[in-house]
Structure formats: C-alpha cells, structure tokens
Amino acid sequence: MDAKRPILTTRQGHPVTDNQSLRSVGERGPATLENYQFIEKITHFDRERIPERVVHARGTGAHGYFEAYGKVGKEPASKYSCARVLNETGVQTPIFVRFSTVIGGKESPETARDPRGFAIKFKTVEGNWDLVGNNLKVFFIRDAIKFPDMIHAFKPDPVSNRQEPWRFYDFIANHPESLHMVTWVKSPWGIPANYREMEGSGVNTYKLVNEQGVAHLVKFHFQPKQGVRNLTSAQAAEIQAKDVGHATADLYDAIERGDFPEWEFCVQIMTDGDHPELDFDPLDDTKRWPEDQFPLLPVGRIVLNRNPDNVHAETEQSAFGTGVLVRGIDFSDDKMLQGRTLSYSDTQRYRVGPNYLQLPINAPQEKVRAYTNQQGGQMAYFVDPTGDKHINYEPSLIGGLQEAPKPAREYHQWVEGHLGRYQTTRTADDYKQAGERYRTFEDWEREDLIANIGGDLKQCPEVIQLRMVWHLWHCDEDYGRRVAQFAGIDLEKAKALPPLPGKPAPHQRRSAPAYTSGKKEEAAGVQEPVGAK
Question: In what residue span(s) does the Catalase core domain sit (predicted)?
C-alpha cells in the first residue's frame, strides 16, 4: 500500500476495501439487495450523462480572459457604454468559451457543414455577461417563432432518421430570408478549418447604453488573430476519414503547448432608431451591416490560455443565455434575440437543473457572489446569503436583502404600436445581400458553393428544385444559372414561376463579374488561409 496515494471511498466517504467484487452468497451468488457500495456505484453510473443539448450538442471549451482597450475605435468606450467590462483597461476579466457545431449530436464529426457556435461567458466585476453567437455574422431566420420549425427541418427525418436535403431546401424555399445564410453555409465558410482560425459574432443586435442613458445599436464580432481558414467539401471529407474530432484536438493541443489563440473583440455601432434610409432593418439578423458604412471598431481582445480540468463539469455543464447582460449592455427589439432570451435559460434549467448557476463553471466570480431569495429545487447545495437566514423575502422592515441604488439616469425606450403579428416589410436584401456575397467570393469558393447546392438539389423533388433555382436566380443570374446547370434543372421553367404566395416579388438581381481573383490550384491545400477577405 502506497501511503502517498489517497484512499478510494464511496460518495458517503466510506473507505472501499474491495472494489473488485460485489457482495454475494458464496462464490457463485446470488447477489444481495443490501449491496450498498455496488448500488451507489452502478446507479450513479446510470445517471452520468445529462441530456445533450438539442442544438450545439457537439462542442469543446476553454478558459481565458478578456482585456478591454477602454476605447471604441478611437473614442472612449464610456461614450457608448457604462459597462465596466468595456471601460476598465488593464483588467483581465475571466472568460469561458464554448465552441460547437449546431445540428449534429454529441459525437457527430466536427467537419460537418454547419454553423459553429461561439459562446462566451464573461465573469465581470458586475456579474456575468453571456454573449451567445456563431462564427457567421447572419442567421437563417429573423423571427424566433420559426426556430423549432427550422431545427426540425434540419435535423434527421423522424422516419428515415437521416438528414434529407429535400427537408432542408423545402424549409429554405419558403423562407427567402434564409438565402443569405445558405450562401455562406454552402460555401467553404460552412466548414471552418478549426475553432482557432474562425470568426465569431453575436449575430443579434444589442444596445450599448452610457451613463447619460443614451443608447446605440451594436453588433459584436470576434476576429481571429491567427487568420481565417475554411475547408472545401473534399478537404473536410479527407480529414473526417481519419478524425471526427479534429477541431477539439487542435484547440486542446494548441493551448497545451502554449500557443494561446487570440481574437480582436470588435463592435459595429449605429444610432438607435429605425433607419428607414437602409433597405434592411438593422434588427434583422439575416442581414449584415455593411462594413464600409459601419466599420468594425476594436474594443479589446480575448485570449484562451487554459483547458478545462474536466469536460463534463465545465464544458458540458456550462450554460449560456442571451438574457445574461450587465448594466451598460441592453436588449434591442430584435425578435430573434427576444425569443432566444427565454429559450436559452429555460433550456439550461431543464437540461442541467434549476440550480445550474450554483455550479462553479456558471457562477459569477467570488467577489460578486449572488445574493437572492431563491431557494430549493433539484441539486441545491447551498442557500444564497440573505443577510438574515430567517428572511427569504423582500422588502422587510427588520432585515434581509434590499434593492440596489438606482442610477442617476436610466435608459427608457418609448414603445407604442398596435399589438399583432407582423413580418418585416424591408425584404429587398433577402436577395440582394445573398447576391452580393456570391459576387464577393473567390472563384474556387463559388465553385464549391455551386457543387454543394447543386449536389443537394439533385436529391430533391422537382417542386423544390425549381423554387430554389428561382430564388438563386433572383439573387444573381449567374448563381441561379450555374446551380441549374450543375443539377440538371430547367432554368426557364424555374424562371417562369410566380413569386411565393404572400411574399413580395424580389428585385436587386445582378450578374456576377468574370472570375479574376481565385486560383484553382491553390484551393486544394489547407495550409494557406482561405476565404473572403
């Protein structure tokens, strides 16, 4: 017996003298019901797995820090926000980042053509701030009520248990706002080479609010200092044949060898308001804010420098929510953001339990420990301090917790309108931005995009083929023509279709310029950074 090694015990702390055999009547049994050590061990094993996330199940994470520059571009950050995490320079705010794919299960390959999750938990001196985003700057839908439909369409068929292309394109064909995201996802940008060389974005529109109560619309973005690299379908297939977890291994190994990945944290700023001069709604998350009009302004950097000690305790039980904001960062009326704010935290209460915020990975940092009157629930292992153990309500004349002082000025948004169900009327960019993205791609990226969509459409019924070509032709004539050609679809028959019922007729159609930028021979390699610059 090695005196330096700790003794194995049960969960009750009882020393285990024999971990090789359960208790039985004689050598051959039977086993007895009072086998407490075995019962504790096997029943815990039966419950080792919590439900995997419905989306973003396949993921990996790392610890690090955020360091603010104290500026938004060249101006003081305090001009836009009173959030200390953005204003205080020289402070390293602890963070935990979880990267993920979206549609596949927990053991699915990381070479999947899929958006990538990029969720960050900032443990600030004013409490937690969660920024839950993706690698791409746009999304498929702009109204949260469509999210279950979208995920159902993208997940495996409930009968065949396979991801069927016709289900994906059946959904897309009825939602033209998805064309922009499809153009990104079906290009090489749909398969990032790894998590370190991948952009991040909050996707939704938020607001920054300063001490004077003045608000600005804001988009959050993360630009990798390692550069951006994406894969073609062929490159991804080659990697997947050897490794289904290459991106997890890449991140883990880089941190272990001290090659800490870093991103520039940037914002896009827009004055608060409707902005009727734009042909898209700035709250519409299927659209990008043009960077020539709304440039990326650096506000700080994030660095990942420590791997989790335990994947389950930290990465899998980490829980994020778009409603977790600090003072100085606020909600906009973005309908996707509003819906996600309910859905994300509700999911964590179901998946991990109502006391998920007591777990160290999710709890705020020690100096801002939570003080609430919330008690009970599954897996509560302490009661939040209240100042008086007898008083778990507020207000009280004799003790307990009290409200924080109100700020001198608060942000108040005037809200007025008729209650109803509305769709945005600014839909021109449903086609325009998708076409612009197609024309921005290098020629090898367009070739990969055409092959991916065209290959998928070959597996779809004609009614979906024709409508998708109709949509793509209205984005860009060359885009629609080449997909039709690749998939053997009658372009003229597709062009003759009427607009979708209840949808405005699209416009803004243009043709792509002649290819001049890409080089086919460079597309085969994965060593050089690739992607739109």
Answer: 9-402
